[in-house]
Amino acid sequence: MTDTRRRVKVYTLNEDRQWDDRGTGHVSSCYVERLKGMSLLVRAESDGSLLLESKINPNTAYQKQQDTLIVWSEAENYDLALSFQEKAGCDEIWEKICQVQGKDPSVDITQDLVDESEEERFDDMSSPGLELPSCELSRLEEIAELVASSLPSPLRREKLALALENEGYIKKLLEIFHVCEDLENIEGLHHLYEIIKGIFLLNRTALFEVMFSEECIMDVIGCLEYDPSLSQSRKHREFLTKTAKFKEVIPISDPELKQKIHQTYRVQYIQDMVLPTPSVFEENMLSTLHSFIFFNKVEIVGMLQEDEKFLTDLFAQLTDEATDEEKRQELVNFLKEFCAFSQTLQPQNRDAFFKTLSNMGILPALEVILGMDDAQVRSAATDIFSYLVEYNPSMVREFVMQEAQQNDDDILLINLIIEHMICDTDPELGGAVLLMGLLRTLVDPENMLATANKTEKTEFLGFFYKHCMHVLTAPLLANTTEDKPSKDDFQTAQLLALILELLTFCVEHHTYHIKNYIINKDILRRVLVLMASKHAFLALCALRFKRKIIGLKDEFYNRYIMKSFLFEPVVKAFLNNGSRYNLMNSAIIEMFEFIRVEDIKSLTAHVIENYWKALEDVDYVQTFKGLKLRFEQQRERQDNPKLDSMRSILRNHRYRRDARTLEDEEEMWFNTDEDDMEDGEAVVPPSDKPKNDEDIMDPISKFMERKKLKESEEKEVLLKTNLSGRQSPSFKLSFSSGTKSNLTSQSSASNLPGSPGSPGSPGSPGSPGSVSKSTSQMAAITTKGGLVGLVDYPDDDEEDDEDEDKEETLPLSKKAKLESS
To answer: Where do the PP4R3 EVH1-like domain residues begin and end (predicted)?
Structure first.
């Protein structure tokens, strides 16, 4: 049988001062050759892997806490703890540590955390212990000064803590506290406040166990009521005894558990309400207090979780119709607090915790509670539901899918959540925002599991769109039956914005489910009715929904948009917005710019054919003129199919050979000497030349002449455009300096037609404005007559298209030049 005495959990302290569970295993101490010393080893009980290997350093301060904890620091910011299942095992390991460090096992800390100066060390060595003044009323000021003077020195803190432990000093101080209160000795009470506060900062578990015992804790809180910095004492004890009532909703039979709950509540109260906010220097001094509360909570959750009778009674009373409302409210609040405590557990323990609750029937119980009229009970149930969803959404999804096979849609758990979201009475919709976040988590495919037999995404989304989506969209559909929203108050607008946010998320993450739903239910048309809302945030939500759909570039969506003329509400909102430079204006322009940049042909044609007259006067951006240009290019290609066929000939000719061969040929062309060019020697290997160059060059020359003519027309149109509005873009005509540097440096002696150095070329300094007929082809290739700054958006695809044409025709034109010479 496994030795449970050595069974431990390994914890490390994270940056948030919370303990992280590193695993459960069995601890041993042995000599490790690699570390050159006695070490603590913890091997995992699951697979025997090494969880911890830590050398027992002679100078490391080890602390024993609560009889089953050993805590120490490996480095400046790396704290470790071993939590033993049994006290006997903790004592055995503690003796080993003390043996290595040469310490008495009766101590609770083996070293001081900070080294002292040599002088202080010598003084402390000469005086083996700290002598405390006798515990009398007249000497309280002296005691307070001694405690305050000991805090800066770790060695003196240690000696003070030992003296307080050994002499039972705390109980004597608390007896004097009663005397001071009876005599109304305010000065003495102020001294006691400073003394008790200083004892807290000693950060000593043994002292905490005395102070937090049943007989002492209320007197300790009483001492902390008399803060000298306050003119009047606080009434903490009155609050704890009269206002804060311990409600035992289900009788707890274990007296130890009951005492632990009382103790944890009061210590938490001391930490949060009684003790002053610690300074930066004092914060680490209370780390043991944090640990004390943390491990108490872990113990409470574990003890309750193991008590099956307690949990069975809890859920039976929760779902019993005979339970009165007040009792049910107390039960739900207890369950909420129980789940909140579980947040201190580590992932594997939390997983077991929620599995226990699931087996007990927490989800059916929540379904019953959420159907009740009491708003406070429903709110607490929502909080419990949020714990379940955040930790294990798959468990919730599995439950609701099983439930759908037995119940009607109206009483499904998810539909209850949606209804509570829709019916939230809070003007700011705080509860609805929380519930929307939970729904989003449930429908998020990123956290859905996939197994060999089934896919959770497919099953759950099929269920959600069949049983729940109509409930979610009901307020939207009810409010958009006319051309304007039937209700346009602020709360309704907020709710519809939340629904649109979730629908937009669905468009992005769900594929055919949401597409079928939008097209079949005509959802987009109804959403765009909200563009007429007086609330700008709601109109923008509607626009964002449409923008997300367009961003998918899905032709099913595009055909639906065109068939229903769904750009009309957007154009109308754009025109109604007028010349105002606001988010609505920018968002609409961005949507049309996306269509232009991505060259979505169907939408481009639809917009220009139906809305060009309304948009043609917008000239402070070039988006709409750019769309018109796209449309004309498309129409020209349709009217002149020869252009497309010629492009395909060029593309096929260029790419039928290996790309590396082509690059080599281009490099050979650019590196060719002028003499070689004059001699008319072909650089391209003869086998790669087209069989009939004249047949191919004829359509090329026609295409280049057409392209050059079209470019010059576009330049004239754009030069005449009178740009006005909030932006006055500057532009210039510029030719590229040449595709390669050696092209621009060609000698004028090279009389190749259209060469960059020839007198008639655009690159020639002699005639910058004239382009001869014989050089028209090369001018179209080696020049780049682009407009700069005409559009707000830098990524102009027109130039990209021209660059592609240039690249496709360049190698052929070079061959043509060679042959013509």
So the answer is: 5-101
Q: CA nearest 80: which of 52, 44, 41?
A: 52
Structural contact between residues 305 and 356, judged by C-beta atoms closer than 8 angstroms:
yes
Could you tell me the end-to-end alpha-carbon distance of the chain, in angstroms, rounded to an integer? 98
What pLDDT was estimated at residue 195? 93
Task: Let me know: does 63 contact 72? Beta carbons within 8 Å.
Answer: yes
Positions in the chain whose pLDDT score sits under 70: 1-2, 75-77, 111-129, 278-285, 409, 450-454, 642-821
Which residues are CB-neighbours of 734 under 8 A, at least 6 positions away? 784, 785, 786, 788
Tokens for 18, please give them.
């919370």
Contact status, residue 595 vs residue 603, Cβ threshold 8 Å? yes
| Confidence (pLDDT) at 241 | 86
- pLDDT of amino acid 452: 53
To 10 degrees, the CA torsion angle through 526, 527, 530, 532?
-70
Q: What pLDDT, in 10s, does the model give residues 164-180? A: 887 788 999 999 999 99
Q: What token pair was written down for 84?
A: 């033993």
The pairs formed by 485-492 with CB atoms below 8 angstroms and a separation of 24 or more are: 485/529, 485/530, 485/532, 485/533, 488/533, 488/534, 488/535, 490/427, 490/535, 491/427, 491/429
**In terms of Cα–Cα distance, which of 184, 182, 180 is closest to 144?**
180
Token output for 416: 């209850």
- Contact assessment for residue 806 and residue 781, using Cβ atoms and an 8 Å cutoff: yes
Q: Rounded to an integer, what distance in angstroms lies between the CA atom of residue 4 and that of residue 57?
A: 26
Do 189 and 208 form a contact (C-beta atoms < 8 A)? no
C-alpha span between 523 and 298 (Å, rounded) = 50
Contacts of residue 447, defined as CB under 8 A and 6 or more positions apart, other chains included, come to: 393, 394, 441
Asked if 162 and 196 count as a contact pair (C-beta separation under 8 A), the reply is: no
3-state secondary structure of 44: strand
- Rounded Cα–Cα distance for residues 612 and 627 (Å): 9
- Cα–Cα distance measured from residue 259 to residue 214, given in angstroms and rounded to the nearest whole number: 8
In this structure, the number of other CB atoms found within 10 A of the CB of residue 206 comes to: 20
How many angstroms separate the CA atoms of 756 and 740, rounded?
11
Q: Please give the structure tokens belonging to residue 356.
A: 């226990």
* Dihedral angle over CA of 538, 542, 543, 547, nearest 10: 140
Question: Domain 297-546 maps to which CATH number in 3.30.420.140, 3.90.1150.10, 1.25.10.10, 1.20.1070.10?
Answer: 1.25.10.10
On whether the CB atoms of residues 436 and 457 are closer than 8 A, the answer is no
- How crowded is residue 465: how many other Cβ atoms within 10 Å of its Cβ? 19
**The pLDDT value given to residue 104:** 79
C-beta separation of 9 from 30 below 8 A: no
Alpha-carbon separation of residue 85 from 1, 4, 96, 304, 600 (angstroms):
15, 7, 18, 17, 67
| Cα distances (angstroms) measured from residue 374 to each of 326, 329, 380 | 10, 9, 10
- DSSP state letters, 548-559: HHHHTT-HHHHH
| Predicted pLDDT at 116 | 41
Residues 670, 673, 677, 682, Cα dihedral to 10°:
-70
Q: Supply 806's token pair.
A: 């240039």
| pLDDT (0 to 100) of residue 649 | 57
Q: What per-residue string of b and e applies to 745-759 under the rule 16 or more CB within 10 Å gives b?
A: ebeeebebbbbbbbe
| CATH annotation of 2-99 | 2.30.29.30
- Residue 213 one-letter amino acid: S
SS3 31: strand
Residue type, 202: L
Helix boundaries (H) for 202-254: 205-211, 217-223, 236-238
Q: How many CB atoms lie within 10 A of CB 343?
A: 14
